[in-house]
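Please annotate this fold before class:
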Amino acid sequence: MASDVTATAKKIKPTLSLAQIMNMSVGFFGIQFAFGLQNANVSRIFQSLGAKIDEIPILWIAAPLTGLIMQPIIGHMSDKTWLGKFGRRRPYFMVGAILASLALFVFPNAVALWMAASLLWLLDASINISMEPFRAFVGDMLPDSQRTTGFAAQSFFIGIGAVISSMLPYILEKFDISNEAAQGSIPPTVSISFYTGAVVYIIAIAYTVFTTKEYSPEEMKSFANAEGEAEQVKNIKTPAQKFIRKGLIWMAIGLGLSALLFYHNSVAVNKLEKELYVLVFGLAAYGLFQVLAGLFHKANNDNGLVEIMDDLDHLPDTMKKLAVVQFFSWFALFSMWIYSTPALAQHLSNTTDTTSEAYNKMGNWVGVLFACYNGFSALFAFLLPLLAKQFSRPTAHMIALIAGGVGLISFYLFHNENYLILSMAGVGFAWSSILAMPYSMLTQSLPSHKMGVYMGIFNFFIVIPQILAATLLGIFTKHLFGGQAIYAIVLGGCSMIVAALFTLRIKDK
């Protein structure tokens, strides 16, 4: 496929068959199987191991922080990798799969909260090693005319993988496997689900690795030249002094706010939440990376850090506009993933007791609901290319996000748990589009030789809202919402509608 002599001679990236596109995407079934288990069960595991409801967001912060660090690094590395018959992106798929499968086997055996939080770091880092190159993979292998279909195929497998993984504990309970556990332990239904996920993950990734061949660097360069891309040269645009100046400013802001926060909490009666330290130290860390990039650049050592920081300073215009849409979309999603089980157990079953039958039944029902929105997502994946062709990619994305926002807000309005399946239809429509449309719009504006690193940087605008959600939602729930977690999900619905409005700024080429 990738070595088609005629296509290479013409320097035109060939269109692929539907079967080839599906083979490329099967690996995402395994990736989302792991994410589905994580999203539906980790809050439940944390609470089973003794976490309080307002502590859950800070424990979840491992996932977005790991992505923030890992994805641009892996993207930059994969852009510069070529291992002959093993390819460019596929080695990262396989390494991530092996590590993630090991983490999934160990996770259910966590005996303490700190151990579960540490395993979440390991699991998410491993998933990111596999996942980030998959986004660039579609940009590498498909012409722009097929990229919406390519990302929609990923959405389909993501939906199917998440449906099965989210429902596993519920299904296993129907086979008389215990869904209850003593305080400080994890139910057998959850443990067996995680073991299953480990096996599925590595098989799905291996299928894509062994059924897909990548284009060589020479072929990629010929395609880029045919499409009028600039010559692939290392050209750092940001002066060293600018790196250093900006870095010092950000470090001063971050450290200054850290000092103020520490002083306030040492003298005040009403102390601010410890989650705020994540935000202020994050600002200081960003400044430090800028300073280091400036020093390296000044010494004519334009390494990966310098290139990533420079690329971050010179984002394509389409990417900047999509970043705002992503910010509000993923803030909404994270509110749902963090709070669905505790919010619905509290709102519909009037319980916060994690050992109770009512709480654990609601936990299983949340797994079913998550399976529903992912199932709807898989179905809507076939609709997205048609909507994009009929209207435009931004308009199709806007419609989907509005549906998702209304779905999240309806969590508060419905008082019968069965009606929440209707809510999940809206959320599933939005989820399907979030997984496909932003990437389809983004790849048309990216140079082929920086596809991986820009995909990694694009992940910042997924991770930053998740960090804010993990930092602020616990504070809001405790101090503004009177401990009623359902309002955190309503806030997420409003955020998704704001994201929909910002899609109006994007022009589709």
Observations:
- Confidence is low (pLDDT under 50) at residues 1-9.
- DSSP finds 21 helices and no strands in the chain.
- The chain has two domains: 15-226+314-505, 240-311.
